[in-house]
Amino acid sequence: MMSKQITSLVLALLITTAAFADQHSKPNIVVVFVDDHAFEAISAYGTYLKDFAQTHAIDRLAKEGMRFDNFACANSICSPSRASLLTGQYSHKNGVLGLNGSINDSSPQYPVELQNAGYQTWLVGKWHLKSKPKGYDKYMVVKGQGKYFNPTFNGSEGTWKREGYSTDVYTDIAIEWLKTRDRDRPFLLSLQFKAPHHDYGHAERYNDQLADVTIPEPPTLYEDVRNSDSNLKKEFLARTKFHMLHADSSQGGGAYYFRHLKDTAPNQMWKHDPNSDKDKIRVAYQHQIHKYIRCVMGNDDNLKRVLDYLDAEKLTDNTIVIYTSDQGYWLGQHGFYDKRLILDTSMLMPFIIRYPKLIKPGSVNKDLCINVDIAPTLLDLAGVEIPKAMQGSSMKPLLKGSTPSDWRQSQFYTYWGAPPHYGIRTRRYTYFKIANHPAELFDRKIDPDQRHNVAGKPEYKDSIAQLEMELQEQIREVVIANSQLPGNATEKRKKRKR
Hints:
Layout: H1 2-25, E1 28-34, H2 56-64, E2 66-68, E3 71-72, H3 78-87, H4 91-94, H5 110-116, E4 120-126, E5 138-142, E6 152-155, E7 158-161, H6 166-179, E8 187-192, H7 231-239, H8 255-263, H9 277-312, E9 319-325, E10 330-331, E11 337-338, H10 344-347, E12 351-354, E13 363-365, E14 369-370, H11 374-381, H12 396-399, E15 411-415, E16 421-425, E17 429-434, E18 440-443, H13 461-477, H14 486-497
Parallel strand pairs: 1-8, 1-9, 2-13, 3-14, 4-5, 4-8
Antiparallel strand pairs: 2-12, 5-6, 6-7, 9-12, 10-11, 15-16, 16-17, 17-18
Helix pairs in contact: 6-9, 8-9
């Protein structure tokens, strides 16, 4: 009898020890998820802004981890991108097509899976989804866009307000939570900044940064979009307000320049010829990019605070840290600001990940990845089963330095706003369809700035045929009906109105 009791006790002890060891072996996860941070404004990416948007903490992640150079969002607008990150699903599957959608109850969410696997989970910052957060032990999120200063939170423990600059406040709360953590369990921290979203509110301490510096312009800043051979660009110009000067007045066009001109200090940099459109765009751009980079500085400084805390607590080696954005952002390319289009500056997003136990420091990945891959990757790294309903692929092999032979050859994209369009991005081409217009093609090998639509050139006939086959394959792969595609749905609505 005694021997049976001893055996039972030993077995129970072994099971408890194994469970304890399993929890301690699981990596902690920190996802710093920001809003509208263009990869061009991260010095680690080595762009024309590298000497001006100096991001030392983000660069540290890249030096100690892996930088992704072909990472795309599947729908370049805030709420859909956030939903895709959480669910590992494309917009038509998770239910968030635009800013007013809610995540389907049937969609998996990676924080729920981690919570069920024993993780302690926290979320703080910008949420921007109609659905309430799931899978978080504690959360404090702001309503909608939130404010840059003195944010008011709705959370798991009620509603309350904190004084200060939002990026600083979010990080304060995150570190407070980390200090009270259960040290015997792994954690997920989702730290989500509003910055650098328009209107680029930054902390006062950055007011004088780059004050007397003329920042380099993107090569397409003065592109004549009104006479473009791309209907996508012309439709964006006519149907939205997101051009520095020439957007259609019925959509609020011109407001960007005039609004920002009022904000500018009376110094030499802002002097211009009021009769020159080029000079107006120059002034609008300089004002935008100065404020934008100051926002980025706040993100970088607060990331440093998190990294320093992990170092001090000796958590660095067993913690996955990601810095990423919900999408890219126009910083004056083609005269635009904002996002929304399939073109690279809007579609491509920064993605930098550090995990010392797995990733070779200073690695650079150029595979075609997409934001639906993030959720399955985190679950895979945590040793948690990936729900079959997730459509993305785990990037764990890529993080180990090996690309699977069946890795995707194109990135699928949809956008249901104005102008509605869908298509694919391959290593060389961007091919897409717009409602009520012919398909368009950009050859990024010879035209990296995507100035000219070459779909009508006879030498691209064979390439277009191959791209059309790839597009149809992607449509089957992501399981989207033709009636659900952005352009098709728009055409049907127009026919009903006639």
